[in-house]
Amino acid sequence: MDEESQPAEKAIEYEIALPADAYWTRDGRIPLGPDLTEALNRAVKYLEQGEFGSLSFVAAFDGHWPRDERTIVYRVDDGVVLTLDGRDLQDQVRTALDAGEVDGWSHLPTPETPIPLTEVQARLGVRVYNLLARQGFRTLDEVLAVPEETLRQERGVGRHCLEKIRQLRDPEGPLIRVAHTRPVRQQDEHADLVRRRMSPASLQRYGVLVEPLGQCDLAVSALSVIADSLNSEPLPPADPAVVRLLRDAAEPGLLDAYLRTHEAVPETGSPVSGERAR
């Protein structure tokens, strides 16, 4: 939006005189204030108005913007922000928020056991992982805290990236943390090895284990033993009541997935061959 098309009150609001040492948005278009507290209060006001989902916060000294004196401030909820991509300035912003210097606003708490972004690198893919890392995200918790509509506004974040993040917002199974990981290329190769040794039914039942097994630092022989063991486990019998409920609900996809992971039974309840399930 150019200056002529901006509402008059906002154009005036931006026009504040600042000394050489001051705080601005990263593109230099909007001055925020001569000191940290004033600048933060002005920044969260813009976030609260919904004009921005995030602001690049920069400290300028003698007209220069040191690389370490910048941070990105995301609005993640009402009265809650998340700061990224900064060092000293990020710490200063968080300290000010924690001290209550910005009335009604706080910083997103850090989880007791944050999940490093590197732990889900294989599930995100190299391109999406690099994109998020360049943006300053260091943990999965930070990524999931930012609303999707805000992420969509970031440069380079498209449909593919958002879909990868959605899969982590609502995973099919628990996120299994691996203590010792191997390089990403080997992770893909070893995960493929596990998949090849398992039947479709076993993959549907134990699919949540495939990626973590590929990531962990186990030898190929050990992975083969684990995959073969999982694959040899007998299928549990299907519950006729569940089959009827899914059939009556006209949910063929769910019914098919259920039957693929259970030993099929006739309506009488006696087990039949599990060849279809396998």
Automatic annotation (TrEMBL):
GO molecular function: DNA binding; DNA-directed RNA polymerase activity
Gene3D superfamilies per the UniProt record, alphabetical: 5' to 3' exonuclease, C-terminal subdomain
A single BP term in Gene Ontology: DNA-templated transcription
All copies of domain RNA polymerase alpha subunit C-terminal, residue ranges: 124-167
Signal peptide bounds: none
Any Pfam family matching the protein: RNA_pol_A_CTD
Protein name listed in UniProt: RNA polymerase alpha subunit C-terminal domain-containing protein
Organism from which the protein derives: Actinomadura syzygii
